[in-house]
Design brief:
The complex is a heterodimer of chains A (270) and B (269).
Chain A lengths: L7 H16 L2 H28 L2 E2 L2 E2 H22 L5 H7 L2 H6 L4 H6 L8 H17 L6 H32 L11 H7 L8 H10 L7 H7 L16 H22 L6
Antiparallel strand pairs in A: 1-2
Helix pairs in contact in A: 2-3, 2-7, 3-7, 3-8, 8-12
Chain B lengths: L4 H17 L1 H28 L9 H18 L6 H8 L3 H6 L4 H31 L9 H25 L9 H15 L10 H8 L8 H7 L5 H32 L6
Helix pairs in contact in B: 1-6, 2-3, 2-6, 3-6, 3-10, 6-7, 7-10, 7-11
Classes of the chains: A mainly alpha (270), B mainly alpha (269).
Chain lengths: 270, 269
């Protein structure tokens, strides 16, 4: 077991080594960063093209959607930076290298999470921050402790929700291996759904993304509270204050699945 | 030694068989396609409704056809990494083995990819369209013509997508790491191809920019033809345009292969 104060030291060492490693091929790193930036911009362009054609979508206008897009993308890309690389689990399992992780006296999940930091993911955080700042300055927001609290709650718990979804996905990889694409439907699919006004979804989807895979809590509900807008049927805006509960729910499922997955693994032989 | 058509036919069959062994992967891809289809359909439905019933010539039925056909085609055209295997083979030197084979490198990879796509279209493409038809409903033409021409158009789309991906992956001869270029390419091509939003919804300047690239020929054109959004002479013209892009991307890939082959140096024996 690591000493209570010493947990961050190895993580800092990993981050330091990753920064040096990614800087040693500057041309590739710049392209990587640019690629990630473009992904963020393309997602924004999709929203922008829709609003080039219509004025309102699901009760939100373009400036309101900026807040929604900024919040959900900030939470998702932060979660991606912190734990997104657990997505590589099928490769480790297929190559048998996961066995080495099992032997070390540290929790498997903690080892995997701290094994990598992809700096290119900072580019998407940048796009999200610009959109969020633009959204917060363009709207008439009644600033007060309530709005500030909501913003902090949304970013922290939203990141936790997406991070939990990544862990759920990784847990299922112990069973899926070649079917790893399946989990994209609630990690990347969740991120996609989370950046849309949930009011446009038909009822079954609204229930799924509102309560089962609660991505509506990452951005849509907080946006409603920040802009003082009413929610659609089935998703009242006051629910936004229960965002920590949604994060807790995702993490309970994630840790349960993780336990189940790690115990299912039989080893790669050899 | 020149390989004949039969050799490439067999490579295509091998690609078909290889793909057919990954059943779970196929199911996983299908489920993901369907989930994304539902989200995209909801967004575009809301947009059509907000625009008062028609949006850039699309109604809710035709936009639904657009969404589900594109989700169905996604597996076959495989924008996100058709020739990604090649990149890895260049990096570890295995590509030298490919060059010693009595077949053309580009053509043999294309044959394998066409075989893969042919398998993908049935179990992954048709269910997507079916789910769309059963849940939200979609408008498809009643005549046989659009489907026949659509089949030609899909084959061309798969080829163009592969040939573009090949040209991107072959840059591995000059770059240590191709992931950056590949992700750049994947985003640009799928956005400009009309995968997220139909090209018809783009503002004029963006639409002009998109049509100056081969990307609409990969997604927008085959969907427009099957769904009957583009018919008659316009449809023939669109297919002719696809032929042009296929020829151009093929030539680019070939000259890059030739240049890379001269540069290639493999260690060890």
């Amino acid at each position: 077991m690591a000493s209570p104060g010493g947990w961050a030291t190895p993580y800092r060492a990993v981050i330091g080594s990753r920064i040096r490693a990614q800087r040693s091929y500057p041309a590739s790193f710049v392209l990587d960063l640019f690629g990630a930036l473009l992904i963020g911009l393309a997602e924004f362009a999709e929203v922008w093209v829709i609003f080039h054609n219509v004025r309102m979508l699901g009760g939100l206008d373009f400036t309101a959607v900026l807040v929604l897009f900024g919040l959900s993308n900030l939470a998702f890309s932060a979660a991606d930076l912190l734990v997104g690389h657990v997505d590589n689990l099928p490769t480790f399992v297929r190559m048998g290298t996961i066995d080495a992780f099992y032997l070390r006296p540290q929790p498997l999940l903690a080892q995997l999470v701290t094994s990598e930091v992809s700096l290119r993911r900072l580019a998407r955080i940048g796009v999200a921050l610009v959109a969020l700042t633009a959204g917060l300055t363009q709207n008439h927001i009644v600033w007060g402790p309530q709005v500030l609290a909501m913003l902090v709650l949304a970013v922290v718990c939203g990141t936790a929700i997406f991070a939990g979804l990544f862990v759920c996905a990784a847990s299922l990889q112990f069973f899926l291996i070649n079917g790893s694409e399946l989990t994209n439907s609630f990690t990347y699919g969740g991120s996609y759904a989370g950046s849309q006004p949930a009011s446009i979804f038909p009822t079954p989807l609204k229930m799924i993304f509102g309560y089962l895979v609660p991505v509506a809590f990452t951005a849509y509900l907080p946006t409603l509270v920040i802009l003082r807008l009413p929610g659609p049927a089935g998703l009242p805006s006051w629910l936004a204050w229960l965002t920590p509960l949604a994060a807790l729910w995702v993490w309970l499922v994630a840790l349960r699945l993780w336990r189940w997955g790690t115990r299912h693994y039989q080893g790669g032989g050899g | 030694m020149r390989a004949n058509l039969r050799t490439y036919g067999q490579l295509a069959r091998a690609g078909f068989h290889r793909q057919s062994t990954y059943r779970l992967a196929l199911l996983a891809g299908l489920v993901t396609n369907i989930v994304f289809g539902f989200i995209r359909a909801a967004i575009l439905f809301a947009a059509v409704e907000s625009a008062g019933g028609t949006l850039a010539g699309y109604t809710s039925d035709t936009i639904s056809a657009y969404v589900w056909l594109s989700q169905g085609l996604l597996g076959a055209v495989n924008i996100l990494g058709g020739a990604s295997e090649l990149s890895e083979r260049i990096r570890n030197g295995d590509v030298a083995v490919d060059f010693t084979r009595p077949v053309d490198v580009q053509a043999s990879y294309l044959a394998t990819d066409l075989g893969r796509a042919a398998f993908t279209i049935l179990p992954r493409g048709l269910p997507s369209v079916l789910v769309g038809a059963l849940t939200v409903g979609l408008a498809l033409p009643a005549q046989i013509w659009p489907y026949l021409l659509g089949l030609v158009s899909i084959t061309l789309a798969v080829s163009i997508s592969f040939l573009c991906g090949y040209a991107v992956n072959i840059l591995g001869f000059w770059l240590v790491e191709t992931r950056g270029v590949r992700s750049l390419y994947a985003v640009t091509s799928s956005f400009l191809g009309g995968l997220f939003v139909p090209v018809g919804l783009f503002p004029d300047w963006l639409s002009t920019l998109a049509h100056a690239t081969p990307f609409p020929s990969i997604v927008q054109v085959p969907i427009d033809i099957i769904s009957g959004h583009v018919i008659g002479v316009e449809a023939i013209k669109a297919v002719a345009m696809q032929c042009f892009w296929a020829a151009l991307t093929c030539l680019v890939g070939r000259s890059l292969t030739r240049a890379g082959r001269h540069k290639l140096e493999v260690q060890g024996g």
